[in-house]
Amino acid sequence: MRNDPLLALLIVAALATPALAQDGGQVTGPQASEVAPSRFGGREPDLAYGAYQRGLYITALKLALPRAEAGDKAAQTLVAEIYARGLGVRRDGAQAAKWYEAAAEQGVPEAQFQTALMLIDGEFLPRDRTRAYELMKAAADAGNPMAQFNFGQLLINEAGNEADEREARVYFERAARTGLADAQYALALMLTQGGEPDLEAARGWLARAAQQNFDTAQVELGSWLVEGIGGPRDMEAGFGWIQLAANGGNVAARNRLAKLYWAGMGVEGDSIAAAAWYMLAKREGLVDPVMEDHLAGLGEAELDAARARMAEIEQGGSGPSALTETQDGGAAAETEAENTRQDQP
What we know:
By secondary structure, the protein is an all-alpha fold. It is built from 18 helices and no strands.
């Protein structure tokens, strides 16, 4: 198995399961509008689910618990969700695991997914990668996007041949087509690898993930646009995507933005702005020899100006952006025809 950037994703997006989140047991949770009834086994658990929707979590638990104990899989999943998120009660990973596992045994995809994560983690259920693999695959095959993404990761991490990697790509693509940005980015990386990379399609998936504010994809897409990888070169649009990620705090983006200002690529050259953005990146631990040389060549007055610009950036004044926003929240990084092509890899 080769060493490549895709492995760095691991199971990051999903391992922060509700049951394992750490917030000191505070009562937090999603808005009712964010919770799909399908998460609870495909059938609303009647009054219990109605109470859950209205934020009456203790009432929901009291109504659902007897039914869960009687074997109702929807109620089991709802009880697990309440304990996992700490909704109206303190978080209880052991109780969440108990009820997720019970619902998983009855084929509820969300419960299978959550149980698989707990089996991998090993804190609230005995670690069992074989069973986790089986449950994750079952949830993925049932259409759970996060399970599809994570099952693809399991296949990649344990891949022994190209067939495993091809299967992983299938699951990444299924999740990507549901709009999951993590999967879109992972699929883009996979499309750059192998004997016949498809850079045009990869750029399209990067664009989709970037439009969802996935900062790593924004940096990658911006770099591709600057360099003309996978499609026409557009340095101004590339600068805009990298600036967007830099404004969001991405350290790599801040260093790349510094280099674009230094080289005058996609933006008018500005040695002070270059120094300021690099100083921000360096403060987070990134050291770049090229930008170190740039700083060494500045006088004290210029360094003072760069420090002042850095302070302005931190206060939200990063300067004009080359990136404009469309009405649907996407970025007008390319022509309409190019966007249409990239939206349909």
